[in-house]
Specification:
- The structure is a homodimer.
- The first copy, chain A, has a domain of 167 residues: Isopropylmalate Dehydrogenase, CATH 3.40.718.
- Helices cover 47% and strands 15% of the residues of chain A.
- Chain A contains 13 helices and eleven strands.
- In chain A, helix 4 packs parallel to helix 5 and helix 6 crosses helix 13.
- The first copy, chain A, is an alpha/beta fold.
- In chain A, strands 3-2-1-4-11-10-5-6-9-7-8 form an eleven-stranded mixed β-sheet, sandwiched between helices.
- In chain A, helix 2 links the parallel strand 2 and strand 3.
- The interface between A and B is large, with 61 and 61 residues.
C-alpha cells in the first residue's frame, strides 16, 4: 500500500465544469483508493455532484471558493485580481505543500501564469514548457513545447530536451528515450540558428542524453524519436495541424463511404476493427498538457474535456507525482547542464 | 485555339529521372496539344525515352546538357559550378524568354537559389516564397511559405498574402479568396510580433484583400481560409506534420483492419468508396510547389514523383503561365502595397 497522494482539483475550470470535472474525479477515485482529492470551487454546486457521482466522502474535501477564472480572461488581468478563484486556490494548495499536483481544465494562459508565479521555476530551468503525449507508428511520444514560449533560444531548447527526457522516463519507464529537435530538414546546416546551436550543445553532451539530431514534421507521426522538442510556436502549429488533419481525414472518409450503401454495409462489418482503432487512438487518452520546469506539478486538461478525458489528465498527474517528476528534472538539469557547452554562456 | 506555350523541363532532376519525367511529359502532351516542351538533359538518355513514351516530335526539342545537380548538393556550391547543369539551362530558357515556365523535380534548395539568381525578384516583392495546394474540408487551399524563408518579417508575410491571393485567383478562379495568417491563437494579442504587425497591415488594407485574421494549425484541415500564410519554418512544419499524420492514420487503421477477417471483408465491400477517397485525395494531384515572387514561373515537383505526379506539376505550371501569374503579382503588389501601412517603413 502506497502513501495517500493528495491532488488539488480546480473544479470550476473548463467548458463543462463543475459537472464533468466531478464525474472525472469520481472515475479516477474508483481506480485509485490511495488518492485523496481537494476540490476547489463553489461548494453549493460541487456538493450535490459528489453525491450524484457517488464520491466516497473519505476521498475528498471541498474547499469553497467564490470566484472563477473566465475562459477568455487575460493572464495579466487574472494575476492581478484572481486570488479568490478556484484556479489560484488549487495551485496554492500545491505551493503550500498540502497537495502534490494540481489539475485544471480552465484557461491555459492563466493556469500557466499562475503556476509560474505560485510554484516558481526549478533551479537550472530558465523557462517552463508545456508537454503533451501523441500516438505514433512506434508508440507514444512526448512533444514539447506546445505553446508556452513563442520564441526560444538554444538554452531553452536544451532544457526542454532534458525535461522531455525525464517525463518520458517517468511515464513510460524507458531509461534512455531518444530525443530530437523539430526542424525543416535533417542536415545539420538546416533551420534556424538557435536550433542548430541547441543541436551542437546536445551532441556535445555525449552519452548523457540519447540525442538523435533533427527530425521533420512527418517524423512526429512516424515516431522517429520518443521526445520531440520545438519552440512553443512550431510545437503548437504541429500539434494543431495534426489534430486538424485527423479530423479532415475522418470527415473525408466518412463522406465517401456515405455515398454508397454497399460501402456503409462494409464499414458496419468492419465495425469491431474501427471501434478498436477509435478506442486505441481516442484523443481523450492523450488529454493532459503537462507543465514542466516548475517546482510543483500542474496539469492542464482540455477545456472541452468530458469526464473520461478529465480522468486521463488526473492519471498523468498521478504518475508525475508518484514518480517525483520535479526532483528528477532538477537532478537531471544539475548533472547534465553543469557540464554542457552552454553552461559558460549562461553567466552574464 | 490558344498560342503555343513553351515549357522548359529539367529532364534530369528527381529520384526517377529522366524516366518518370519523360513519361510525365508524355502524359501532359496528350492533354495539351498547344504546349511545346524544351527538354534539358543528356540527349543519349532522353531520346530513347521520347520514343518509348510516344512523344510526338512536333511537341518537343531536346537541349543536350552535360551536367546534373546532385540531390544532396548545397545551393551555394551549385551556384558556383552548376552552369552546365540541366537545371540551370532549363531556368535560363525562361530567363531568356524562350520558355514561359520551368518544371524540375531536382534539389529544392538549388532550384530556388538558381531561380532567384536567373529570374530575379519581382518589383515590390522582397523575398520569393514557396506555395503548395492542400485539400481541406471546404476545398483546396493554398499554403505558403513552405520553406524558402526560415525567418520572415511583417513585410514578407504581407507580400506572401498578396502572392497567395493572386495564385488562388488564378488556379481556382475565385475573385476574392479569404486570406489568413497562421498563428497559435485567434485573438489579436497572440503569437509573434511580426505576425501581429502583418495582421495590422493587412487589416488596414480594408477591402483590397479579403483578410480573415489568424487561423491555427487545425484550421488548415478545416479549410477556414483559402490562403494560409506562414513563415517558411512554420509552414514547412505544418505541411510535413500533415503528411506524417495522414501516413500514421492510414498505417494504424490498416493494422487494426488486418487483425480481423470480417473487417477485411468489410473493407473489400467498401472498396469503391475507399478507391474514390484515395483518388480524390491522391497526394500526386497536389504535387508541384510553386515559387512565387520571381520574374518567371518556376515549379518544383516532388523528388520522388512518378509520371502522373510530374504531369500534375506541369499542369500547375501551365495554369500559372497561361494566366500570367508574374504580371498579376506585380500589379497586385503595385496597387496594394503602395497604399499599405507598411509602405512608409520600407524606405531606409
Amino acid at each position: 500500500m502506497t502513501d495517500t497522494l493528495i491532488l488539488s482539483i480546480d473544479a470550476m475550470g473548463g467548458d463543462h465544469a463543475p459537472e464533468s470535472v466531478l464525474e472525472g474525479v469520481a472515475l479516477s477515485a474508483k481506480q485509485h483508493d490511495d488518492v485523496f482529492f481537494f476540490l476547489f470551487g463553489n461548494e453549493e454546486k460541487i456538493a450535490p455532484l459528489t453525491e450524484k457521482y457517488g464520491l466516497d466522502p473519505k476521498c475528498y474535501k471541498i474547499h469553497h471558493t467564490t470566484d472563477v477564472v473566465r475562459m477568455d480572461a487575460k493572464p495579466s488581468q487574472i494575476l492581478r485580481s484572481g486570488r479568490e478563484t478556484s484556479m489560484w486556490k488549487s495551485i496554492m494548495a500545491v505551493r503550500n505543500g498540502y497537495a502534490k499536483a494540481v489539475v485544471s481544465a480552465g484557461n491555459t494562459g492563466a493556469l500557466m501564469a499562475m503556476s509560474k508565479i505560485c510554484l516558481g521555476t526549478l533551479p537550472g530551468i530558465d523557462r517552463p514548457a508545456i508537454a503533451g503525449i501523441l500516438p505514433s507508428v512506434t508508440g507514444p511520444i512526448v512533444v514539447l513545447d506546445l505553446g508556452a514560449n513563442t520564441e526560444c533560444d538554444a538554452q531553452n531548447l536544451v532544457e526542454f530536451s532534458l525535461m522531455g527526457e525525464v517525463l518520458y522516463q517517468i511515464l513510460f519507464g524507458v531509461k534512455e528515450p531518444s530525443v530530437a529537435l523539430l526542424n525543416i530538414g535533417s542536415e545539420h546546416t538546416k533551420g534556424r540558428e538557435e536550433i542548430r546551436e541547441a543541436a551542437t550543445a546536445l551532441t556535445e553532451m555525449g552519452d548523457k542524453i540519447n540525442f538523435q539530431g533533427f527530425v521533420e514534421g512527418n517524423d512526429i507521426g512516424a515516431g522517429k524519436a520518443q521526445v520531440i522538442v520545438a519552440d512553443g510556436f512550431s510545437g503548437n502549429i504541429a500539434l494543431k495541424t495534426l489534430e486538424g488533419t485527423v479530423k479532415f481525414v475522418s470527415y473525408a472518409l466518412k463522406k465517401e463511404v456515405k455515398e454508397s450503401w454497399l460501402s456503409m454495409f462494409g464499414f458496419l462489418m468492419a465495425h469491431p476493427s474501427l471501434a478498436r482503432f477509435k478506442k486505441k487512438y481516442d484523443p481523450r487518452l492523450y488529454n493532459g498538457a503537462m507543465f514542466l520546469g516548475l517546482k510543483g506539478i500542474s496539469v492542464k486538461s482540455h477545456g472541452g474535456a468530458d469526464a473520461f478525458a478529465f480522468s486521463c489528465a488526473i492519471e498523468a498527474a498521478i504518475k508525475m507525482a508518484r514518480k517525483d517528476l520535479c526532483t528528477k528534472i532538477k537532478d537531471e538539469a544539475a548533472t547534465v547542464l553543469n557540464m554542457s557547452a552552454l553552461d559558460d554562456t549562461s553567466a552574464p
